[in-house]
Write a structure and sequence with these properties.
Oligomer: single chain
Structural class: mainly beta
Strand content: 35-45%
Shape: globular
Largest sheet: 3 strands, antiparallel
Length: 65
């Protein structure tokens, strides 16, 4: 889950499209969903809540997803 404190951030989610989140917005990202940060404001601040606290991140190059 993310909660945006300040600024904005744009993500793309596999099968869902692009979303822009602004201060006060939150998003529950399902486990194992392929996602990517596309852009963000210079002043973006957010909190990311994860469970479990330790998890693996796998980088997927474009065209391989």
């Amino acid at each position: 889950m993310i909660y945006v404190l300040k600024g904005w951030i744009r993500f793309t989610y596999e099968g869902q499209g692009e979303f822009t989140f602004r201060a006060g917005d939150s998003c529950l990202q399902p486990a194992d969903i392929i996602h990517d940060e596309l852009a963000c404001s210079d002043d973006v601040e957010l909190i990311e809540f994860t469970s479990p606290a330790e998890f693996e991140t796998h980088r997927v190059d474009q065209g391989q997803a």
